[in-house]
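TASK: fixed-backbone design
INPUT:
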């Protein structure tokens, strides 16, 4: 990028920051998207899609019992277990997600694309959920699989653009801008920006889980009214699609586009994202701390996603839960998550703990889940429905806060002006690993005959990230991001440039 192009970008962004500080309505527009979209993850991804795919294929050749491991059907010449089929569909959607993420991630940083792409991908997902109504009999399991793949890919793509709003809303917050303009010490500016970022992130998750709780209550009512009817899952998914659509409309009305600088001269939207991602990967040594966090999140996010799959399948196959009871567990988890987001944010403020400290603490508490799971193999623990309900509540109480603090910690080490590009990579590490846990635990279950042995894998999924998080130097990561931005473009983050300083630019003194 030439000096003229870089100067033009900096001038554009600086003017936008000064003219358009974040309004309350804009912030509520951001929260509205999470309020509308989170039910898809909590209801459709966690319950409806996997149970629907497993149930439809199991009905092709009915299983003898609810936990018959020999139940199978033929897809062409291949003989598949219904549970494995659901996992394979997940793996395919994740592979496609990785390609889509790379192709779209950098686009939101340039031109007026961020909001447009956020709404477009969200709309595809919501309409896909409604399309589940077309799966009217067991022989249409292939259609259900295609809908699931489209919905998962579009949902994941939308969150690339949703996450990319966090640094922008933080940098342009009125309190942060006033702190910069008043000439406060860079360290004070950083503390203020970190607090604002944590607040926006935590409230975003809290509103998201609030929406999930309401949607889960509605879908649980549907399941209770229809009993164990196989079509109840399709109706529940469609209701959540309609809910998602309402959130998209509110976001369209209230969330500002926040346009970025124009695409560099001579670049194409078809290739620019790929070139940027290739450059990002090649420069990993210069952003070693951010990439160390990405590696940690790659492993941990797989564990977090796998816990949900294990809980649903465990409840259905070993505990004999009805569809309504599975929805009840799914209801408890986001309820606890919404409370947890607010609770852990207050803990951070009261004890004045840094974001990295919160990540390590919550990671440690989360390891209790697989430890209890391993103990349950040898002792009479986790053998009643009440215990599984408690398990779901504890999982949710930690999940929302852990996701929020991870996201904020990553935002602190982003090169200014490259938010969408790097959050695209963040989303790839999040979703790109989510096929590993289900497939590995599926293989363990097939080998041992007990899904409980999968808790050994989950323990590793939480223990390794814990070690990696201890090694992260946030202070070093912030300065690596600043130096990267100077070299490759974006918003300058020199501490002496009052209008262009990154909110996470100063010495964090985390370690």
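OUTPUT:
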């Amino acid at each position: 990028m030439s000096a003229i192009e870089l100067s033009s970008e900096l001038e554009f962004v600086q003017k936008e920051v000064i003219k358009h500080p974040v309004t309350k309505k804009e912030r509520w527009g951001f929260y509205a998207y999470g309020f509308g979209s989170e039910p898809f993850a909590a209801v459709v991804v966690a319950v409806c899609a996997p149970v629907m795919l497993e149930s439809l294929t199991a009905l092709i050749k009915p299983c003898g019992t609810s936990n018959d491991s020999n139940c199978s059907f033929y897809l062409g010449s291949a003989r598949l277990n219904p549970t494995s089929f659901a996992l394979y569909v997940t793996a395919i959607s994740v592979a496609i997600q990785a390609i889509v993420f790379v192709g779209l991630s950098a686009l939101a940083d340039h031109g007026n694309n961020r909001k447009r792409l956020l709404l477009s991908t969200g709309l595809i997902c919501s309409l896909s959920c409604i399309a589940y109504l077309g799966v009217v009999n067991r022989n249409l399991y292939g259609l259900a699989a295609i809908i699931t793949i489209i919905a998962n890919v579009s949902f994941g793509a939308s969150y690339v653009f949703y996450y990319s709003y966090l640094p922008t809303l933080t940098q342009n917050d009125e309190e942060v801008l006033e702190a910069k303009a008043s000439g406060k010490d860079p360290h004070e500016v950083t503390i203020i920006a970190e607090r604002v970022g944590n607040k926006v992130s935590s409230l975003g998750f809290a509103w998201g889980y609030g929406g999930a709780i309401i949607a889960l209550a509605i879908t649980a009512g549907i399941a209770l009214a229809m009993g164990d009817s196989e079509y109840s899952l399709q109706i529940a998914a469609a209701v959540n699609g309609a809910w998602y659509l309402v959130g998209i409309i509110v976001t369209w009305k209230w969330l500002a586009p926040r346009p970025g600088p124009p695409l560099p001269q001579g670049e194409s939207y078809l290739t620019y994202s790929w070139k940027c991602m290739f450059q990002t990967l090649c420069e990993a040594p210069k952003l070693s701390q951010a990439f160390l966090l990405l590696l940690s999140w790659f492993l941990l996010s797989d564990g977090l996603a796998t816990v949900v799959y294990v809980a649903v399948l465990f409840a259905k196959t070993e505990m004999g839960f009805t569809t309504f009871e599975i929805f009840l567990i799914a209801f408890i988890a986001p309820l606890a998550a919404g409370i947890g987001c607010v609770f852990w944010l207050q803990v951070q403020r009261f004890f004045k703990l840094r974001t990295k400290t919160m990540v390590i603490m919550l990671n440690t508490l989360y390891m209790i889940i697989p430890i209890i799971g391993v103990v349950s193999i040898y002792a009479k623990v986790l053998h009643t429905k009440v215990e599984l309900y408690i398990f779901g509540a504890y999982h949710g109480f930690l999940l929302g806060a852990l996701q929020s603090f991870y996201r904020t910690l990553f935002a602190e080490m982003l090169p200014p002006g490259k938010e969408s590009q790097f959050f695209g990579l963040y989303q790839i590490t999040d979703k790109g690993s989510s096929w590993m846990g289900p497939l590995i635990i599926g293989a363990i279950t097939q080998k041992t005959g007990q899904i409980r042995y999968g808790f050994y894998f989950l323990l590793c999924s939480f223990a390794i990230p814990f070690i990696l998080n201890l090694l992260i130097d946030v202070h070093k990561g912030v300065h690596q991001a600043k130096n990267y931005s100077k070299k490759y473009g974006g918003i300058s983050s020199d501490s002496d440039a009052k209008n262009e300083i990154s909110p996470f630019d100063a010495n964090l003194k985390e370690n």
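COMMENT: The two ends are 35 Å apart (CA to CA).
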